[in-house]
Amino acid sequence: MAEYVEIIKDLQKGKYSPLYFLQGEEPFFIDNIIEHIELNALDDTQKSFNQYVLYGKEISFTDILNVARKYPMMGERQVVIIKEAQEIRDWKKEEAQKFLTAYLENPLATTILVFGHKYKTLDRRTKIAKTLEKHCVFLNSKKIYDDKVPGWVRSYAQASGANISEKAIMILTENIGNNLQRLANELDKLRLNIPADQQIDEVAVQKYVGISKDYNTFELQKALSLRDEVKVFKIITYFSANPSSNPLILVIANLYAYFSKLLLIHHQNAFDKNAVARAIGVNPFFANEYIQAARNYPAHVVIRNIELIHQADLQSKGIGSASMKDGDILKELIFKLMH
Questions:
Q1: Dmax of the chain from CA atoms?
Q2: In this predicted model, what pLDDT tens digit does every residue of 103-134 receive, in sequence order?
Q3: Are residues 157 and 194 in contact, defined by beta-carbon separation less than 8 angstroms?
């Protein structure tokens, strides 16, 4: 089973395999590999003759293999990309699987066949899954854990030649979450707008991403950690007035992640900067805030708060209080968290 970085490095060197099977819950890695192949495996003069993009809902394995077995026209190779491969109707048909297996065991060297099987994974115990894993460049694209997202943002920025501050990273990750495609898009936008010799900081994030420097989820968590009621209620008033920029479901998700980190600190009794950084996967620069929060919210209060956040999540989905507006749910939740 290949890793995303290894696959991208090979593609950047112009090393292509005849078979790729890309599956999993995280679409970003799958889409990036497919995009790289789609843009670079053939030059523009060849694409109209030798590049095929097919969609799972519309095709069968027979259709795919009929195209894959063709020889390229006036070129050395052809590219066949299957998007939404999880929708192919033949995955559970034994006879169709036999046809696919026969091709996988003896693929045409002049064809690059790519399956993009997003949001789902094949059962690895099945014969077809084992055959695909054996013969293809096989990627299992997993969602990355929330505590790994800041590191991913840092690596992505560095790989593109950008210098980004830790606070800018935290503001982006706390407000966007683990949507890697959106994070990548925003980082690309920042890189284009900020000169290479300047650092991307929170001011740049405010200007080009549209996340307020003073009124964002990161600042809300910081104010909660200090029990700064005045600032907390200024922020949630701003959120209530700007719901499209600060959707309740995302605020709730971030609060749940935040208090879960505090629970982990209590569980591991991690009350120095390095221990906190290791326990919850944050930069030591931000550890003092979490230490302060853990002291202001004892373990039993943290557990209660996680339950309150769960109740607010149900309310946001119309369970228990269908008549409440999002802003009222948020204000009630924040008041209960702090009292």
A1: 73
A2: 999 999 999 999 999 999 999 999 999 999 99
A3: no
